[in-house]
Structure formats: C-alpha cells, structure tokens
Design brief:
The structure holds two protein chains of two kinds. Chain A is an alpha/beta fold. In chain A, 36% of the residues lie in helices and 27% in strands. Chain A has a domain at 1-75 and 184-237: P-loop containing nucleotide triphosphate hydrolases (Rossmann fold, 3-Layer(aba) Sandwich), CATH 3.40.50.300. The longest helix of chain A has 17 residues, at 164-180. By secondary structure, chain B is mostly helical. Chain B has one domain: MetI-like fold (Orthogonal Bundle), CATH 1.10.3720.10. In chain B, helix 2 (38-51) crosses helix 5 (87-111) and helix 5 (87-111) packs antiparallel against helix 9. Chain B is globular, with a radius of gyration of 20 Å. The relative contact order of chain B is 0.15. The chains are: A alpha/beta, B mainly alpha. The A-B interface holds A 44, 46, 71-74, 77-79, 81, 83, 85-89, 98-99, 101, 144-145, 148 and B 114, 116-117, 119-127, 130, 134-135, 138-139.
Chain lengths: 237, 222
Amino acid sequence: MLDFSLDARRGSFQLQLECAFATDWTVIFGPSGAGKSTLLRLLAGLDDPVHGRIALDGRALTETAIRLRVPPGRRQTSLVSQQPALFPHLTAAANVAYGLSGLNREARTRRVDEMLELVGATHLAALCPQDLSGGQAQRVALARALAPSPRLLLLDEPFSALDGVASDALLARLQSWLRENKVQTVVATHDATDALATSAEVLLLRDGRRVALGPAVEVLAPERGRLLVRLQMSKST
Amino acid sequence: MDWQAFALSLRLASVTTAILLAIAVPLAALIVLGRGRWLAAVEALATLPMVLPPTVLGFFLLVLLGPRTAFGRGIAAVLGHPLAFSFDGLVVGSVIYSLPFAVQPLVAGFSSVDTALVDAARLLGAGPVRLVSSILIPLARRSLLAAIVLSFLHTVGEFGVVLMLGGDIPGATRTLSIVLYDQVESFDYAAADHTALLLLGLSVLALALIYSKTRNRGAGRA
C-alpha cells in the first residue's frame, strides 16, 4: 500500500495532496499541468516536498518532519517517463542491466533476457538507443525499470509511442507479470481511454489537487461523454 | 635548445594535469549535481585563478609557502625542504593556476548531459561515483579531452606563477617559458626563435588532436 501526504512547489505551481492507494494498479488522470508528473517525481524521490510524508507498505520513504529522505535508488521504486531516457552510449541489453550491478554476470544476463522477452524486445538487445524507434525505446525503458524488481512502478504516459494494438498486448502481459510479482503500479495519463482500459482505481487530479479517488467507472463517469464524442470524431476522419 | 627545460616543462604539465583531473572531475560533478547555494561560492572560487594576475597568485603562494608563515614552515618540516623554489612548489602553483581550465570544460560538459539520464541512473541505484564514471564521463568525453589538453598546455606555457614561485633554477624550476625569457633578456633571438617555435608546435599539436577527435566523431555520426 502506498500512502502519502504532500505539499510541494515547482515555481508558481503548488501540489497539495493526501491519498492512499490500496489497489495494485492506480491511474492518475488529469489534464496537462494537473501535477501528474510532479507527483510521480515526488514519489520516486527525485524531488522533495516542502512538507509531507510518503510511505510504501508502512515503510517511510520521505518524512520531512524528521528530515528522512530515502535516496531514489534505495526506494525499490522505478519510474518510466514518456521520454524513455535510455543511456545513448549503451546497448539496449546494457541499459536493462544497468540496475543489476548487485547480481553476478550469469544472473544478470538471465534477468536481462527475461525482461526483454517480457516486453517483446529480445531482438533489440544488441541495438543502441539511436537505432530504436520511439515505441521500441519505450519497451526497453520498461524492461530496464522492471529488471531490479521494484516494489513500486511509476509509469508516466509510458505507452504514448506505441500503437493501440501493440500497447494493449503489452499492457495485458505487463499487468499479469506485475500481479504475479506483487508490484504496485501507478500510471499517470491524460488520456481517458488509457484510464478506462483497466478496471483500476483512479485518482482524478486538477491544478495539483485531488478531485476524486475511486473506481474508474465512477470517477471517470463525467469524462465518458467527451470520450464518446472523440471516438466518433476519430471514426469519421 | 634547452632539452632539460623541455623535459621539465613536460614533466610539470603531466603531473599537474593528472592531479587536476583527480580534483576537477569530482569538483565539476559536485557543482553540476549538488544542491545548495554554497556551490555557487565553490564554483566562483574554482574560477578565481582565471581572473587573478599570475604574478599576484605567484606572490601569494610564495608568501604562503615560504618560511614566514606557519603553514609554509609546517610543510617544510614535513617535506624536509620548503616548497618555494622547488619542483613540488611549482606543481602546487600550477594546479591552482590551471584549476579553472580543467573545471570549466567539465562543468560545461556535465551540465549538457540530459538530466533525465541522470535521474534514470539514480533511480537504478547509481551512487555519485558510478553516476560520474558510467554516465557523465562517457557522455562528456569531448569536455574531458578539452580539460586535459587545456590544463596541459596552460601549464606548459605558464610564466608568471613559475617565475614568482620557482625562480629560475636549472633542472628544478627552469621551464621552457623561463628559458625563452632568459634568451630574450640576453638578446639571443636565434635561440629564442627555436624555443618559441617549440612552444607553438606543442600548442598546435594538442589543438590538432582535439579537433581531429571531434571531427572524426562528427564524421562517424553522419
């Protein structure tokens, strides 16, 4: 379980939020500028709140009152952003292996193969990031994030470069693997179809504030009308 | 040609460059990756020798390392000889004088690395040492090369600090720049020509090395 109470500022933007995510898969839904990426960076420990607390399974990761801040690499948390941020001087396999420095060579190779297979990128292992398409790079970034066995996976619009069919197939495979490995996942998206695609808990975020938190069908009910219009428009073009 | 001075200049520049790299890489990484207002003061301090007249810096170091100060006397007691007017003293002076020429290119190079890559490495458990060695240095190779060449050339060509701090002792502190000065002082322009050409040749050679590496890399990408 992930619970947090945060007061954070980025320039003139302020995020004030108190939530507890109890389910395995939570979607943060909101328009651009709502604070989704800011929230994910705070949860990952890449940015610090002014005040607040973040706890994962009861273990405090950030607690400003006692100046506690577990460094990003020790939070058992992985983050995949819209921009895959693959290390350009390393092959796809070496990128995936980067977070596995604690394993011996054989175990590392096995884990890299396993992760690349999971995301359907085995054939990309020897390629460098500049030779990958946007979708391929996102798959490798996902494999890299999963390789160190995180307890919490944060996804910031991670399937934006994949086409619908590829995205759906990957999502199904990924969700099954995450459930099996008990990885709690938080996905940020501004696309209602992504949010509705899973029977997830949804946090509706606007201007850095919580608007609603609950089952997708309830929270996104007001969005359904807009979504239908968009679907009809895309069919007619 | 004073080959002894030539060898001494190369030795001084090599030792200085090696020490500078050991200092400048972590310092530049701290300036780029660190948090806190005091880092601006650290960067300003590392840049100070660039704007300070070399003779002034040489004079300060001469006083500091000389027998008039407790620090200078302490160093002399530890080493068995004073640092002023010795090769070791020249190394200390050169390291301080050339520090900005090593730090500045590295700060520029490290700053140009996408912060998303740094964040990704940190999330994957990279500590400061691994972050610098596996991400910043490989992605800022040109800046590292520039820092090495600039530090080396700047030390080979330095004059004010060397004269103030080291004097003109053959085999110990007489570098090529001092030899050139001596030759001009004694109106030996033919010898001065050779010395100046040698210094110029070294500079051209080093710059050609930097630009050829840069060009090769650019051509490789195209």
